[in-house]
Amino acid sequence: MKSYKFVIVFFVLLISLFTITSLSYADTFQNVLQRWTKSVKYIDKENMLDNVEIKATYYSAEFIEALTQNEAKNNLWTQQETDDYKYNFLGALRLEEMIPIQIEFINNGPTMHLGPFDIMAKLLIGNKEYKMVDYDKRFNFKFQGKKDGLVYFPRFDEKTGKDLLKGVKSVKLIIASSISPVVDGKRTEFYWDVANDDPSKLYQGKTAARFETDRLLKRLEKLRKDKAEHEKQLQGINDEISTVQKRLDELAKQ
Question: Domain spans of the chain?
Answer without folding.
Answer: 37-203
